[in-house]
Every structure is written in structure tokens, then in C-alpha cells.
């Protein structure tokens, strides 16, 4: 299915959702969201193991909004085809540990998928100087990847501002996605720093009412 990707939106991360009822969880938050963020972890690139293309394939049949898969895996190239076939609409791969990143990004684009590069908290904005010309979006990790529910790393704000400057100076149409520790107390400043897409896991699905939390967070993005 072809979707329109919003300029700015909330992207709830199902990592903190109830895995026994993912369809229902997605339906709850979708009216207030533009993307569903799916964290793919392989227990090598990060010390955690989550979901793969089989689950994404099932979710793509029920989701009314685009699926944004964040690959935290070693050797992502060998998985691009499977994720394309699973119905993933956006795919991001990490800058770290990938000597052939340009090739990986081209593989994603060839599949007709929106392609992003993700950077860890210890990777500087300057690491993007070359690859930024090839991607559709940059995912800035504002926690160390691997787990939901961690505290936001404040330096990420300065990094996002630098990336936004790089995008504007080069007149690029590249979106910025922020991922990790995003909540009501930092979403406004992240928006002002130049973020387009706001991943939120525990601040949505870790609350008694994911629907209410998504609605409240999305209101910060709209205004
Ligand atoms: C962490 C993942 C995040 C995570 C965010 O490695 O990439 O997407 O789900 O969770 P919160 O919003 O709880 O920090
Ligand atoms: Zn993520």
C-alpha cells in the first residue's frame, strides 16, 4: 500500500506495547500518529532481541498508517529484501559498524522504501556529512539503542540543531526523526530544534491510556 508520509508527526514505538495485542495497540494510537515505529534488534548490534519481517508482514495488513522499521542489526543488507516484502514503508539502518552504508541506503531506495540513517548518541553530527545527501531521513538516537524506557540524553538537542543546519544549508529535503526518551517535557524543544518525527515508546504504551498519551503528545507537534 502507498502512503503519504507526513511532514511532522508522532511515531509510537510498539517496543513498549503489549505484544499479545499489537493490532489493537496500533489502532488505539493511529488516529493521533503518522507512523508506527518498529524496533528490530538482533542481539548482536544491540543486547536485545525483538521482532523480524514475519511480524511486520502481519502488521502491514492491519495498519492504516505507514510502518517505520528501525534496524538495529549487524549486516542489514541481507535483510532489506525481506523487510521490503514484509510491507515496511520506511527503513533506517545504523551508521555505526557499516563500512558500506551508501550501498545499504541504495538497496533500500531500490525497493521503493523511504531510507534513513540512524546515529547513536556517541556518533557526532559530522558523521553525516557525506551520507546526508543520499538519505530521506536521519534518525537521531537520544538514548543508547536496545531498550525502551531510558532517560533522554540532553546533548541530542544540540546535535539535532547541527543536523538541521546541515540540511538547510545544503537545501536538502531530509527529515529528522528523534528516538529515545521523548515525552511531554521535551517534545516542544525537540520540535523547535528541527525534528519532524517523534518516536515515543514508554511515554505512549507505558501509560494507562496509550490513546490519551498519543493525543496529548500529538498536540505538541501540531501547534
Ligand atoms: C530503543 C528504540 C526506541 C525505543 C524508544 O533502542 O530504538 O525506539 O522504543 O522507547 P522510549 O520512547 O521508551 O525511550
Ligand atoms: Zn527505534
Strand order of the largest sheet: 1-8-7-6-5-4-3-2
The N- to C-terminal Cα distance equals: 29 Å
Under CATH, the homologous superfamily reads Aldolase class I
Secondary structure class reads alpha/beta
The level 1 CATH classification is: Alpha Beta
Bound small-molecule species: D-xylitol-5-phosphate, zinc ion
Number of DSSP helical runs:
8
> Which architecture name does CATH use?
Alpha-Beta Barrel
Strand elements, count: 8
Net shape: globular
Instruction: Briefly note the CATH topology name.
Output: TIM Barrel
Number of domains: 1
For the biggest sheet, the summary is:
8 strands, parallel
- Mean of residue pLDDT? 97
Order of helices and strands: EHEHEHEHEEHEHEHH
Cα gyration radius (Å): 16 Å
Beta percentage is 15-25%
The unreliable regions are none
Q: Could you characterize the architecture of this molecule?
A:
It is a single chain. The chain is an alpha/beta fold. 34% of the residues lie in helices and 18% in strands. It is built from eight helices and eight strands. An eight-stranded parallel β-sheet has the order 1-8-7-6-5-4-3-2. Residues 13, 15-16, 37, 39, 70, 143, 145-146, 148-150, 179-182, 199-203 line the site of D-xylitol-5-phosphate.
Set out the fold topology.
Layout: E1 9-12, H1 22-29, E2 36-41, H2 53-62, E3 67-72, H3 77-86, E4 90-94, H4 101-110, E5 114-119, E6 137-141, H5 156-169, E7 175-179, H6 187-193, E8 197-200, H7 202-205, H8 210-222
Parallel strand pairs: 1-8, 2-3, 3-4, 4-5, 5-6, 6-7, 7-8
Summary tags:
223 residues; alpha/beta; TIM Barrel; 8 helices; 8 strands; 18% strand; binds D-xylitol-5-phosphate; binds zinc ion
Amino acid at each position: 500500500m502507498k502512503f503519504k508520509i507526513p511532514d511532522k508527526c508522532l511515531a509510537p514505538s510498539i517496543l513498549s506495547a503489549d505484544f499479545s495485542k499489537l493490532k489493537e495497540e496500533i489502532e488505539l494510537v493511529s488516529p493521533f500518529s503518522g507512523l508506527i515505529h518498529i524496533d528490530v534488534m538482533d542481539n548482536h548490534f544491540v543486547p536485545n532481541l525483538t521482532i523480524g519481517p514475519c511480524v511486520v508482514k502481519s502488521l502491514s495488513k492491519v495498519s492504516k498508517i505507514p510502518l517505520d522499521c528501525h534496524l538495529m542489526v549487524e549486516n542489514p543488507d541481507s535483510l532489506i529484501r525481506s523487510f521490503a516484502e514484509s510491507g515496511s514503508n520506511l527503513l533506517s539502518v545504523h551508521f555505526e559498524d557499516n563500512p558500506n552504508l551508501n550501498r545499504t541506503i541504495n538497496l533500500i531506495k531500490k525497493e521503493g522504501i523511504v531510507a534513513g540513517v540512524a546515529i547513536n548518541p556517541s556518533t557526532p553530527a559530522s558523521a553525516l556529512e557525506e551520507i546526508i545527501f543520499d538519505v530521506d531521513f536521519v534518525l537521531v538516537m537520544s538514548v543508547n539503542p536496545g531498550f525502551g524506557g531510558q532517560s533522554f540524553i540532553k546533548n541530542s538537542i544540540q546535535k539535532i540543531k547541527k543536523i538541521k543546519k546541515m540540511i538547510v544549508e545544503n537545501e536538502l529535503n531530509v527529515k529528522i526523526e528523534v528516538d529515545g526518551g521523548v515525552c511531554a517535557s521535551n517534545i516542544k524543544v525537540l520540535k523547535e530544534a528541527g525534528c519532524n518525527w517523534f518516536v515515543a515508546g514508554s511515554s505512549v504504551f507505558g501509560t494507562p491510556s496509550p490513546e490519551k498519551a498519543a493525543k496529548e503528545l500529538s498536540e505538541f507537534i501540531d501547534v
